[in-house]
Amino acid sequence: MIGTYKTADFTFSAHLSFNKDGRLVDVDLRLDPRQCHRLKDAMFAKYGSVESSLEDMEIFEWRDGSARNLVSMVSLDGEPAICAIGYSPLPEDQTEGL
After folding, report:
1. Domains of the chain: residue spans and CATH
2. pTM
């Protein structure tokens, strides 16, 4: 399923994936690359992050108790080319104690 997700500051292209039982298993939100740095700064301010670099890709991850959230940016010539947010609900046995 593909749609649009809007916030006050950003408009995303949303790609939703469901399993055969109809449960939401993944959300991939893609953002105009020109807004990537602003989004990254907003995520840092709200959630804090763990940052790692893999060649030209930067990955920022946080967990909010029930989901693993991922912001990835792929850079070309120092400018972001792709910005995506992945949301994956954690299995129930991994959410205890978070």
Report:
1. 2-95 (3.30.310)
2. 0.35
